[in-house]
Amino acid sequence: MIAGCVLLAMSGAAYAVTRVAIDKATSNITQTTLLADDARAPRRTSAPSGKKIDGALNLLLAGIDVRPGWDAGARSDTIMIVHIPATHDQAYLISIPRDWRVPIPANPETDYPGGTDKINAAFEFGYRGDGTELEKRARGFKLLAKTLHAQTGLTFNGAALIDFQGFQSVIRELGGVDMCVDQRASSIHLAYDRNGKIVPIKFDEASHRVFDVPPGGKVVVHEIGCRSMSAELALDYARIRYGLPKTDYDRQRHQQQLIRAIVTKATSAGVVTDLGKINRVVTAAGKAFILDTQGVPIVDFIFTLKGVAANDLVVLKTNQGNFAEVKINGISYQRLTEESLEMLHAARDGELPSFVAAHPEMVAPKNG
């Protein structure tokens, strides 16, 4: 969507000129194979030009928190599906609960024998072991995609992986985003020092306590209300789940809100008319994202989906944003309701718009 701003800004240009410009702007985006074979949808592009992709599309997005020198593993705590109907004029966003209890297939590459766990653990079981960081992330994503396919039958036309630090860099190049805080939230990641400067802090999950708040400083608290947020504050708000009434479901909603805010900012007049800013945003995205387009040029996705930018992103709620808790041996898991599974099956079958029309209660409000 961000790369599509290049096309929107050059909408009067000839196709060949526009294509060259987009190819140049997106050439530094890292691409590799992220999707397991059984989770890959058949490649569908129009012949002979190949500039338009046919049919409905499903894209799998995952966000991880991996930092240099950090040995805490790499779980995909953000998992989202973007569905584009065959009309290519709308985008639907579905968040998958990180604590969904699912069977995870065996992964011989990392000697993982298979088992039942939270779905966010699938990435970790594929990520562990030797290899370059890119190889490990690709393995993790493949096992995540394979796990999701086994539970829903969904196959994907493309995939994107991003870490939280990279995500922040994209928002920073956009100049921040406009967010509406719908519930007071105390950060477990950031604090202000005595001079008002934002500094990182640590959080201990066992004791639910924060550490390293500087003397005379205080934890960042997001108060209710709408405001422009810096990259640091916007990402921080979207990552908080501790202390919120619905914990991860509240976080899912805030993450979806942030995605919508990024799309709104990226397609605003102040961005699409500034080619320098577009280039900086796309460059930041290129460094932050790892993409799998199944060999389809990025420019083909942009031309196919250019009509999506004209319509607001439709955000959907699994379990209608409510807990469907299962406790096993003292560990809390989530299950998906039949209605939520039907929604994922509708995305699988290219019938999501009809499902949403029949189930308006699954649509999340724009600012909450």
From TrEMBL:
InterPro entries: LytR/CpsA/Psr_CW_biosynth (IPR050922), LytR_CpsA_psr (IPR004474)
Keywords: Signal
Domain (Cell envelope-related transcriptional attenuator): residue spans on this chain: 75-267
Pfam entry (one): LytR_cpsA_psr
Signal peptide interval: 1-16
NCBIfam families, A to Z: lytR_cpsA_psr (TIGR00350)
Family note: Belongs to the LytR/CpsA/Psr (LCP) family.
Name of protein: LytR family transcriptional attenuator
